[in-house]
Amino acid sequence: MRELEDARAFADWLNATGKGKVAGWTYRLPTEAEWEYAARGPQSLQYPWGNAWDATRCNFGAKGLGISREEVDDGYPRTAPVGSFSPKGDSPFGLSDMAGNVSEWCLDWYGPYKEGDQTDPTGPPPPVDEDRVLRGGSWFQDRCWQRTTDRGYFEAALGGNCIGFRLVLAPGPP
Predict the structure, then answer these.
(1) Is the peptide bond preceding residue 173 cis, with omega within 30 degrees of 0?
(2) 95-143 residue pLDDT tens
(3) How many domains in the chain?
(4) 35 and 135 Cβ atoms separated by less than 8 Å
(5) Could you give the C-alpha distances from 45 to 63, 82, 152, in angstroms and in order?
(6) Measuring CA to CA, which residue among 127, 166, 148, 123 is closest to residue 51?
(7) b/e string for 31-70 if b means 16 or more Cβ within 10 A?
(8) Which of 25, 46, 66, 103 is the most buried (most CB within 10 A)?
(9) For residues 108 and 120, what is the distance between their CA atoms, to the nearest angstrom?
């Protein structure tokens, strides 16, 4: 089972058990717009912690693998324990690991957005090359991937050790 399927199965399990659920609310992957707002906050920050790059605030670049040009070694050759860079790397909403560690699956399919201003866009209809949106950069990626606005994608049927997920609890059906 791949990561995207695991994320959906976990959300389904949480919804079925009712653990931590509010009546009428459902666990699911965030839309790409929800993910970005959670990372940037109302200030529209470039990084979850602010507008200046700070290599000590997230797990990125896998220096031991020779893919980073930074002079910082965070001590983790791959993923770090969740919250290892908290609170200094947290988003304005107090969410940890919104940059680095693992790229996170979003609900949206990858593709271009419609032209013009939009509120909470959901991306193109499925399927568009079978790719799903990934956000947040990972331990395997350099600093340019850690910006809150950076968009990545991966084939939904695949996975890797630098991809993960977070869930939202939102009103409505799954």
Answers:
(1) no
(2) 999 999 999 999 888 887 777 666 777 777 666 567 889 999 998 888 8
(3) 1
(4) yes
(5) 25, 22, 18
(6) 148
(7) bbbbbbbbbbbeeebbbbbeeebebebbbbbbbeeeebee
(8) 103
(9) 11
User: Which structural domain range is residue 117 located in?
Assistant: 3-171
Written as one letter, the residue type at 173 is P
Q: What contacts 118, CB < 8 A, 6 or more positions away?
A: none
Q: Which residue in the block uniquely carries the two structure tokens 């209809």?
A: 125
- Pairing of β 152-155 and β 163-164: unpaired
What CATH number is given to the structural domain containing 139? 3.90.1580.10
Q: Does the predicted TM-score (pTM) go above 0.90?
A: no
